[in-house]
C-alpha cells in the first residue's frame, strides 16, 4: 500500500513530477503565465523566465504548454534538454521539434535553417498559425545555439515575429544573455520567479491535499507550526516544499495519524537550503 492510501487519499499529493493539475498559482507564477500567454499570442518573440532550482519553472512550463494548446491556434514545441554541444545537432533538434518536413539527405546546417524559415513562413503567414518553441533548462544552451535562436528571431513580417520562444532557465542564464547583447535586446518579457510567501505555501499545501482527498474522507493536514517551520526550511521554494511535505506525510502515515506536527517535519537543510531563513512577510 502506498503511503497516501494509508492516509485515505486517492492519489499522491506531493509527487516529484511537475503535475500541471496540482499547479498552484502564486502571485509571481500567475503573473508569469499571464504575461507569457499575452506575449506569445501577440507574437512578440523572445520571453525568458529565470529562477533557482525549486522555484517552479518546470511546473509553470508544463502548465503553459497546456494552456497554449486550448485555443487550437498555436503550434507548441518543447525542448526539455537543449544541452547539445554541436550547433548542427541543435538545428536538427529544432527542425524536428518544429515538425519541419524531413528531407533526404538531411543537408547542411545552412540548409536546415532555410527549411526551418520556410516552414515558419508557411505555417505562420500562409497558414495563420502561431508557432511557439518552449525550452526548459535554458541555462544549458551554448552561445552558438543562442546565436541560432537570435537568427530565427530576425525572421519576421512587418507585424510580428514568426517564431515565439519561451526559455525557462536558472538565474545564472542572465549572465549568458548579457554576454550576447544582440540577443538580450530581443527579449520581450523577462521575469525572475519569486519564492512563495508563507500564506502562499499554506494555500499550496492545502490545495494539493484537498485535490488528493476522496469525497468520503477529509484530507490529512499540517499544524500551523509545522507549516511555518517547513516554510522556513524551504525558504518558500515550492519544489522543496513539495519534497519536504512528502517526507512529513510519510512520517504521519507511519504513525497512523492524520495531522503533521513539528516532529514530522524533516530535520536539517533541504538541498543546501539553510535550516533557518529570514522571517516571511506578515499576512
Kindly estimate the percentage of residues that lie in beta strands according to DSSP: 5-15%
Strand order of the largest sheet: 2-3-4-1-5
Number of helices: 11
Sheet/helix structural class: alpha/beta
Order of helices and strands: HHEHEHHEHEHHEHEHHE
For the largest beta-sheet, the strand count, sense and barrel status come to: 5 strands, parallel
Q: What are the low-pLDDT stretches, counting only 5+ consecutive residues below 50?
A: 271-283
- Using the coordinates shown, work out and report the CATH topology of the largest domain: Rossmann fold
CATH class of the largest domain: Alpha Beta
- Total domains: 2
- CATH fourth-tier homologous superfamily of the largest domain: P-loop containing nucleotide triphosphate hydrolases
Q: Residue share in helices? A: 40-55%
Indicate the mean pLDDT: 89
Query: What distance separates the N and C termini?
Result: 39 Å
CATH architecture of the largest domain: 3-Layer(aba) Sandwich
Radius of gyration: 22 Å
Shape: elongated
Amino acid at each position: 500500500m502506498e503511503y497516501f492510501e494509508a492516509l485515505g487519499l486517492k492519489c499522491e499529493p506531493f509527487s516529484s513530477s511537475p503535475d500541471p493539475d496540482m499547479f498552484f498559482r502564486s502571485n509571481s507564477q500567475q503573473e508569469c503565465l499571464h504575461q507569457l500567454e499575452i506575449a506569445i499570442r501577440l507574437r512578440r518573440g523572445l520571453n525568458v523566465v529565470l529562477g533557482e532550482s525549486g522555484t517552479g519553472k518546470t511546473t509553470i512550463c508544463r502548465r503553459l504548454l497546456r494552456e497554449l494548446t486550448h485555443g487550437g491556434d498555436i503550434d507548441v514545441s518543447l525542448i526539455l534538454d537543449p544541452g547539445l554541444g554541436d550547433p548542427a545537432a541543435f538545428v536538427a533538434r529544432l527542425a524536428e521539434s518544429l515538425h519541419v518536413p524531413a528531407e533526404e539527405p538531411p543537408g547542411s546546417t545552412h540548409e536546415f535553417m532555410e527549411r526551418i524559415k520556410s516552414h515558419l513562413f508557411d505555417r505562420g503567414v500562409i497558414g495563420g498559425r502561431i508557432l511557439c518553441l518552449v525550452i526548459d533548462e535554458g541555462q544549458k544552451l551554448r552561445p552558438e545555439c543562442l546565436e541560432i535562436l537570435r537568427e530565427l528571431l530576425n525572421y519576421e513580417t512587418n507585424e510580428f515575429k514568426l517564431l515565439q520562444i519561451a526559455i525557462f532557465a536558472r538565474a545564472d542564464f542572465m549572465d549568458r544573455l548579457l554576454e550576447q547583447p544582440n540577443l538580450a535586446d530581443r527579449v520581450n518579457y523577462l521575469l525572475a520567479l519569486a519564492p512563495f510567501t508563507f500564506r502562499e505555501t499554506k494555500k499550496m499545501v492545502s490545495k494539493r491535499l484537498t485535490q488528493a482527498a476522496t469525497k468520503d474522507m477529509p484530507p490529512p493536514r499540517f499544524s500551523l507550526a509545522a507549516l511555518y517551520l517547513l516554510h522556513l526550511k524551504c525558504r518558500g521554494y515550492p519544489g522543496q516544499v513539495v519534497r519536504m511535505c512528502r517526507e512529513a506525510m510519510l512520517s504521519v502515515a507511519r504513525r497512523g495519524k492524520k495531522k503533521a506536527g513539528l516532529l514530522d517535519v524533516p530535520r536539517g537543510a533541504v538541498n543546501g537550503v539553510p535550516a533557518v531563513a529570514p522571517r516571511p512577510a506578515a499576512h
